[in-house]
Amino acid sequence: MDxxxxxxxxxRGPGGCPWDAAQTHASxxxxxxxxxxxxxxxxxKGDDALLCEELGDVLLQVALHVQIAQERGAFGWEDVxxxxxxxxxxxxxxxxxxxxxxxxxxxxxxxxxIKRQSKDQKSASDAIGSIPRELPALMRAQKIQEKAAKAGxxxxxxxxxxxxxxxxxxxxxxxxxxxQAGSIDEARGELGDVLFSAVNVARVLEGxxxxxxxxxxxxxxxxxxxxxxxxxxEAGIDMKAASMEELDRFWAVAKAxxxxxxxxxx
Length: 266
Fold this sequence. Notes:
This protein has helices spanning 2-12, 18-22, 29-45, 48-72, 77-90, 93-96, 104-118, 124-129, 137-150, 160-181, 184-204, 210-234, 244-265. By secondary structure, the chain is mainly alpha-helical.
């Protein structure tokens, strides 16, 4: 860590790298996001070598931001590490204090309660307002819905899935009406309502994360599209000139092929 800190200091110092020296918190914020997602790729693939490398890249982003802040006299490494150490001790009273937590749920409740107290969040609205707008939209929607549910703003346990299904279908109907009316602004708003309702369905499905559900759907589309493109090429058909009826037939074949492959592997 000391060597990393020194290297970053040299890169941004006199005679260092012009690119590194020119960076600001804002200019490299996208790099931070990209490196984090690449670390997630290593986790998803179960690739320890990739994860190790990408965690190093994430750590570099942390080092750059701390160095930039230090040059401005805002904060330094000692402030960052001391802050997180204090937070971990404060929010784990069941480890470092006398509070009891016999399971992960109890530990999470302790964490949430202390977090709200330390951030002076007196209401559920305060907690919801603290969720960063910069989160991916699906993730933010699900976190907001979860906090609202914890505050009691939710359907009874015996009815939520059916109730949410009706809500989702109702929002789809309103989107359809807006599209038929040709109102772009209204349709945009209704589309947002459909997506928000779909995320709410994900919330009540055990173990379902809206971001991962959409990622899975996107993966399936990409797989099917590759087969459609291959089938069209084998048939000598230009996809740009083909009718949707022709492409739909290829799409049906692609779905069936992938479904049978998955069954075979299982």
